[in-house]
Design brief:
The protein is α/β, with parallel strands linked by helices and about 290 residues long. Helix 3 crosses helix 4 and helix 4 crosses helix 5. The strands form 2 sheets. It has an 8-stranded parallel beta barrel with strand order 1-2-3-4-5-6-7-10, surrounded by 5 helices. A two-stranded antiparallel ribbon has the order 8-9. The protein has a single domain, classed as TIM Barrel. The protein contains 9 helices and 10 strands. The structure holds fe (iii) ion (FE) (2 copies) and zinc ion.
């Protein structure tokens, strides 16, 4: 099972510390932001201990394409109402692509954005136009994330993701990240994972899928809310998520947990253990302090 979680990237060990954190959870994949997700302040990669991180990954036999980078969510390439926001998004995205490359990672997850006060079609067209301006790199694949459809988010259906992908000048530099909380909240029935994968394959193509965000959700199917829950503690439930984590059809794709901390503690070691052992142990997720 290729499984990991969102991890921190902070002083003094930076990326090396991120890998250490992942290893402490028994993970063999990880995802991180190159700085605070809500701002664009970034430190140079030369200070991030990338070589040490790569060394540690190698020592543990984890290929670098399982270190996934998530772009900050303030990047909104779909904003047609404030073109300067979309422009800033591309400017930052260019740097983020360069950072991902310098780190030695391959997949950069990006939210397709929100149309704000415009409309869905305009948002999609704007996102395509902005992404076509990005300074793409052959070694970095930008993975558009399937969204819940909260507020004015685009990318809540496979059709919309496909529409964006098919408008891109260099589609080979793009792929998809499938978020289980988001797809549920967008209306997909993940109790029929095979059926959803069939639909994904028909509309987008399974070969475009590179990352899975494995989250339970606080909301019922179709709620268009986007609130993550711990594994087994939401409306998807343990068996549905286990089924996704263990499916042979997506076995080669890293599953990344983005579930909430319990109290002040990350739940990832416990959640990974439950999924690996196929055993739901809610007592492991109880708040202790
Ligand atoms: Fe995301
Ligand atoms: Fe996600
Ligand atoms: Zn989310």
């Amino acid at each position: 099972m290729i499984i990991g979680s969102h991890v921190q990237m902070k002083a003094p060990l930076f990326l090396e510390g991120s890998v250490q954190e992942a290893l402490s959870y028994g993970a063999n994949a990880l995802m991180l932001y190159t700085g605070a997700p809500q701002n664009t302040k970034r430190r140079p990669v030369s200070e991030m201990r990338a070589a040490e991180a790569r060394e540690l990954m190698k020592k543990h036999g984890i290929p670098m394409d399982r270190m996934i980078i998530h772009a900050p969510y303030i990047i909104n390439p779909a904003n047609s109402v404030k073109p300067e926001v979309a422009e800033l998004a591309v400017e930052f995205l260019d740097k983020e692509i360069a950072r991902t490359h310098a780190i030695g990672a391959k997949y950069l997850v990006l939210h397709p954005g929100s149309f704000t006060t415009a409309d869905e079609e305009t948002g999609i067209r704007t996102a395509i136009a902005q992404l076509n301006r990005a300074a793409l790199c052959d070694d970095v694949i930008i993975c558009l994330e399937t969204m819940a459809g909260k507020g004015s988010e685009i990318g809540r259906t496979f059709e919309q993701i496909e529409q964006i992908l098919s408008g891109l000048d260099r589609p080979e530099c793009f792929g998809v990240c499938f978020d289980t909380c988001h797809t549920n909240d967008a209306g997909y029935d993940l109790t029929d994972y095979d059926g959803v994968l069939d639909e994904f394959d028909r509309i987008i193509g399974l070969d475009r899928l590179h990352v899975i965000h494995l989250n339970d959700t606080k909301n019922p199917r179709g709620a268009r809310k986007d609130r993550h829950a711990n594994i087994g503690q939401g409306t998807l439930g343990f068996e549905t998520l286990y089924n996704i984590a263990s499916s042979a059809r997506t076995a080669h794709i890293p599953k990344i947990l983005e579930t909430p901390y319990i109290g002040k503690k990350p739940p990832y070691g416990e959640e990974i253990r439950m999924l690996k052992e196929h055993r739901y142990m809610p007592e492991l997720l109880a708040e202790t302090e």
